[in-house]
Each structure stands twice: as structure tokens, then as C-alpha cells.
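Hi R.,

As promised on Friday, here is the backbone we talked about, encoded as C-alpha cells. Could you run it through your design pipeline when you get a chance and send me back a sequence?
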């Protein structure tokens, strides 16, 4: 895919980023309203639960990175999830300064319940797109992420 150079007076990239942000927020809000809010969960809380569930155990710094949030934000989210009995903090077995997160049985059950519902809500949100458009968008977004990760 050819690189696009945005120039003053031709803000195509700026408009694309605006729409990307608005679309991501619209999908997030849909999933929150339909699936998460009835369970008193936020999108960020669900992303943290899903991330830890997929890994089984994960250091907090890696959870924050995978969830796309700061470590400070993660601390508040984990406090809430821990208070609800969904996640627990453990000391890292090799380095007591590090913290590892793990879901409790209650947290595992909740994620298993929510995943099919969230996937259905996500599919509805993207049902506007034809399968070929969805595949193209997915490939483009994956490429965008890889491009920006290489630029770090």
C-alpha cells in the first residue's frame, strides 16, 4: 500500500484519523451499552479481563500495554475488578517487586459469559460492511499498527 503524505491544505490523513477515532468509539459505546453496562463493567475493565483471561497470568506492565492504557489507569481498573472478586494480584515468582494478575473463578466465568455476547455486539456493529470490506479494513488497520510499532 502506498504511503500517503498529508500536506497543509489537504488534510486527508487528519480526516481519516478523526473518522477512525469516532468509529472506534461508536463500536465501544455500542458494546458497553448492550453487553457491559448491564453487568456494571466498563470497556476498559472488560479489555483488562479479556487480556488477562487470554494469557491466564500476566504482569501488570504487559496488561497495560496490551490493553492500550497507562499503568496508572490499570491500577484503578484492577482495584475495581479486584474489589468485585474478578481478578487478583500476585507477586511475580522471580521478582517480588513485580505484580502478576490472574482472574478468579468468578472472573473467568464472567469473561466466558461475556465473550459470545460481546462478539455478537461487535459483529452487529460491523455488519454495515460487506465481508470483503471488513477483510480489507482489518488488513489496513493491522498494517497501520505494524507501521507505527516499527516507527517506535
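Update: got your reply. Pasting your designed sequence below so it's all in one thread:
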Amino acid at each position: 500500500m502506498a504511503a500517503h503524505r498529508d500536506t497543509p491544505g489537504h488534510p486527508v490523513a487528519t480526516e481519516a484519523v478523526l473518522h477512525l477515532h469516532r468509529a472506534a468509539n461508536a463500536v465501544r459505546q455500542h458494546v458497553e451499552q448492550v453487553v457491559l453496562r448491564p453487568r456494571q463493567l466498563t470497556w476498559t475493565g472488560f479489555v483488562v479481563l479479556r487480556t488477562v483471561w487470554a494469557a491466564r497470568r500476566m504482569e501488570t506492565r504487559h496488561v497495560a500495554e496490551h490493553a492500550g492504557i497507562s499503568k496508572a489507569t490499570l491500577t484503578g481498573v484492577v482495584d475495581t475488578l479486584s474489589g468485585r472478586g474478578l481478578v487478583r494480584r500476585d507477586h511475580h515468582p522471580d521478582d517480588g517487586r513485580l505484580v502478576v494478575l490472574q482472574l478468579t473463578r468468578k472472573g473467568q466465568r464472567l469473561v466466558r459469559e461475556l465473550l459470545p455476547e460481546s462478539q455478537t455486539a461487535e459483529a452487529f456493529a460491523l455488519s454495515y460492511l460487506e465481508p470483503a470490506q471488513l477483510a480489507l479494513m482489518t488488513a489496513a488497520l493491522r498494517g497501520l499498527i505494524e507501521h507505527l510499532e516499527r516507527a517506535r
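One thing I noticed while checking it: The helical segments are 12-36, 43-55, 60-67, 71-83, 105-126, 131-151.

Thanks again,
M.
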